């Protein structure tokens, strides 16, 4: 991984780093992880975009309240 | 005598678009009257019971991560054959669902696993059902990914939590309920095919962005980037966390010469912050804050735009392009033969911002417009499934999309509503949006046209005209092709206008004509 900004991703980042991460988002081809509707991944592939699909399943056996709790706790 | 059968596949998840396709394939089988394939969430179990495709006793043990396939058929054999066909069709989609990356040993099951295996990924596109979206988006942000959060039904608290985390990490959270994004030349989500160019857009909503993008394209220019931030971003609760990041990014972007901001009116504190920021961006700005007072935007040095087309055209002019002359080619239908009692406009929209814009235009000309749009758009319908007087409904709103695809992909909700409105003798005109582009329905006009033609014929037989007005949000380069879609609608008697606002103005004029026709001669 050569992307310098990712090394600081667990901590707060400076304003300069923010600009650089956003500038990269705008100026480099997106490399996408698709989670959910498969159609969106197909559409990106048609445009020649790098995309990987996550074989997603609802967490916590599909229990919505547990999933919300999980989000709050992580 | 109809036979109803169902099957449950435990612990198997499929997205709602795949399941919609499966339902349609099953309904096309001989002897099958109705079919539904849905995940077994509480809301979906309720829908299946209401539709009498599932008995409450059978629904009780089904879990949210179970897949339910239910069919109603003329014979038991036809029902069983359909269930067997469903198994075969699911097996064939399973084999096609793997990741595209060559040599991937196994499909990752979590964002974490995907990031470990593909560490150069920089963006997560998340469209899981709303209740799970917070968790997934948080996982993505923690791993350094920008997020496009397509999911709706995400709580305000979750949105604020995610946006604060994103900002702390120097990442952008686009959404929730973000339908459309353009990054460079790439369209993500519902995106029309438009050329690249000097106009950068920050939009609270997907269709607001799509409308500006297509109109800029039709005027010969294009988009540098289009960043969706979610409909609540400029509320005082969220305080523009994503909008301000996106504005700064576009201000620093060498490909962007003009910036357009599209949103509902911001909250008062956020509006003040926005107007203070605009002059510091160092680039011309067009502010299209639908329904807001234009004066503060003008005072901030921005060009205020009342409608989406005004915004697109202002941006084109600022970027040195030329806009089509004030359109003299808008349709001028001769006065339809209205029956007494026909008075109301009913707007059935797939795009939230297009619905909002239409409601504002209609309100100006006709008075109060009932809707499910919330905020300043007008009085709220008690039941969004039942219109009253002049009504505009956003069929892509949360209450219509739980457990089913967006109406830009799945036309069934709108077709049913169209039928309902056409049977109402107080309705004078129907107003629609038809949104093209990648990921949208392959032939939305083809799906709507037979229902429109049938509705008009029925009204005609009952002695009342039923004009239908539409705007097609699209380009010639879209897979569905703008001109082909407009021609298909015209063949069903639809008046297609050149902008959404023009369509709403025409609908209002027709309602005035209807009111005049219903008045007793003085």
Can you tell me about this structure?
The complex is a heterodimer of chains A (74) and B (522). Chain A has helices spanning 15-27, 38-46, 64-73, and strands spanning 31-35, 50-54. Chain A is of the alpha+beta class. Helix content of chain B is 39%, strand content 19%. The longest helix of chain B has 20 residues, at 76-95. In chain B, 56% of the residues are buried. Strand 1 of chain A pairs parallel with strand 4 of chain B.
Q: From the structure provided, what is the oligomeric state, counting identical versus distinct chains?
A: heterodimer
Would you count the extended β strands of chain B for me?
19
Sheet having the most strands of chain A = 2 strands, parallel
Name the beta content range of chain A. 5-15%
CATH top-level class of the largest domain in chain B: Alpha Beta
Please trace the helix and strand order of chain A, writing H or E for each element.
Answer: HEHEH
Helix content of chain B: 25-40%
Mean pLDDT of chain A: 76
User: Averaged pLDDT of chain B, please?
Assistant: 92
Count of beta strands of chain A: 2
Descriptors:
heterodimer; A: 74 residues; alpha+beta; two-stranded parallel sheet; 43% helix; 14% strand; disordered N terminus; B: 522 residues; alpha/beta; Alpha-Beta Plaits; Rossmann fold; six-stranded parallel beta sheet; five-stranded parallel beta sheet; 19 strands
Q: Secondary-structure blueprint of this entry?
A:
The complex is a heterodimer of chains A (74) and B (522).
Chain A: H1 15-27, E1 31-35, H2 38-46, E2 50-54, H3 64-73
Parallel strand pairs in A: 1-2
Chain B: E1 3-9, H1 16-27, E2 32-39, H2 42-50, H3 56-59, E3 67-73, H4 76-95, H5 111-117, E4 123-126, H6 130-142, E5 146-149, H7 156-168, E6 173-174, E7 180-183, E8 186-189, E9 196-203, H8 206-218, E10 223-228, H9 241-252, E11 258-263, H10 268-277, E12 285-289, H11 295-299, E13 303-304, H12 308-318, E14 344-349, H13 352-366, E15 370-371, E16 391-394, H14 398-401, H15 412-422, E17 427-435, H16 444-461, E18 468-473, H17 482-491, E19 494-497, H18 500-518
Parallel strand pairs in B: 4-5, 5-6, 9-10, 9-11, 11-12, 12-13, 14-16, 14-17, 15-16, 17-18, 18-19
Antiparallel strand pairs in B: 1-3, 2-3, 7-8
Helix pairs in contact in B: 6-7, 8-12, 13-18, 15-16, 16-17
């Amino acid at each position: 991984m050569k992307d310098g900004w990712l090394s600081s991703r667990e901590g707060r980042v400076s304003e300069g780093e923010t600009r650089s991460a956003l500038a990269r988002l705008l100026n480099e081809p997106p490399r996408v992880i698709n989670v959910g509707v498969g159609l969106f991944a197909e559409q990106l592939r048609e445009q020649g975009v790098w995309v990987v699909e996550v074989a997603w399943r609802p967490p916590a056996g599909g229990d919505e309240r547990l999933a919300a709790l999980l989000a709050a706790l992580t | 005598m109809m036979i109803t059968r169902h099957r449950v596949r435990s612990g198997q998840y499929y997205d709602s678009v795949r399941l919609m396709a499966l339902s349609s394939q099953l309904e096309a089988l001989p002897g099958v009257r109705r079919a539904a394939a849905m995940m077994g969430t509480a809301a979906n179990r309720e829908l299946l019971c209401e539709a009498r495709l599932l008995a409450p006793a059978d629904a009780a043990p089904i879990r949210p991560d179970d897949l339910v396939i239910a069919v109603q058929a003329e014979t038991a054999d036809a029902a069983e054959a359909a269930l067997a066909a469903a198994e075969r069709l699911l097996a064939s989609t399973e084999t096609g669902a793997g990741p595209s990356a060559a040599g991937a040993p196994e499909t990752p099951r979590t964002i974490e696993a995907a990031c470990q295996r593909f560490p150069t990924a920089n963006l997560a596109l998340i469209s899981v059902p709303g209740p799970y979206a917070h968790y997934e988006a948080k996982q993505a942000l923690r791993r350094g990914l920008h997020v496009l959060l397509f999911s709706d039904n995400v709580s305000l608290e979750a949105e604020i939590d995610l946006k604060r985390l994103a900002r702390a990490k120097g990442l952008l959270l686009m959404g929730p309920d973000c339908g459309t994004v353009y990054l460079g030349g790439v369209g993500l989500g519902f995106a029309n095919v438009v050329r690249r160019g000097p106009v950068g857009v920050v939009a609270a909503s997907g269709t607001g962005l799509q409308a500006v993008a297509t109109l800029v394209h039709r005027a010969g220019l294009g988009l540098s980037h289009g960043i969706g931030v979610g409909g609540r971003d400029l509320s005082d609760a969220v305080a523009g966390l994503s909008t301000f990041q996106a504005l700064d990014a576009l201000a620093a972007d060498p490909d962007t010469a003009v910036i357009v901001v599209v949103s509902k009116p911001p909250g008062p504190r956020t509006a003040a912050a926005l107007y203070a920021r605009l002059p510091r961006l160092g680039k011309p700005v067009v502010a299209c804050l639908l329904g807001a007072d234009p004066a503060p935007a003008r005072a901030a040095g921005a060009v205020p735009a009342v409608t989406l087309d005004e915004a697109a055209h202002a941006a084109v002019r600022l970027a040195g392009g030329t806009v089509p002359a004030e359109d003299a080619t808008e349709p001028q239908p001769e006065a339809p033969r209205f029956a007494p009692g026909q008075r109301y406009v009913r707007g059935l929209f797939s795009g939230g911002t297009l619905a909002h814009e239409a409601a504002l235009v209609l309100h100006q000309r006709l008075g109060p417009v009932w809707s499910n749009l919330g905020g300043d758009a007008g009085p709220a319908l008690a039941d969004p499934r039942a219109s009253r007087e002049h009504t505009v409904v956003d069929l892509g709103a949360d209450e219509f999309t739980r457990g089913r695809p967006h109406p830009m992909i799945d036309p069934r909700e709108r077709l049913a509503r169209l039928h309902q409105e056409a049977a109402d003798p107080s309705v004078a005109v129907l107003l629609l949006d038809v949104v093209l582009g990648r990921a949208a329905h392959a032939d939305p006009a083809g799906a709507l046209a037979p229902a429109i033609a049938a509705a008009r014929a029925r009204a005609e037989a009952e002695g009342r005209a039923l004009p239908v007005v539409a705007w097609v949000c699209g380009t010639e380069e879209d897979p569905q092709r703008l001109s082909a879609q407009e021609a298909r609608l015209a063949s069903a008697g639809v008046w297609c206008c050149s902008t959404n606002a023009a369509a709403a103005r025409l609908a209002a004029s027709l309602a005035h004509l209807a009111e005049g026709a219903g008045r007793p001669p003085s």
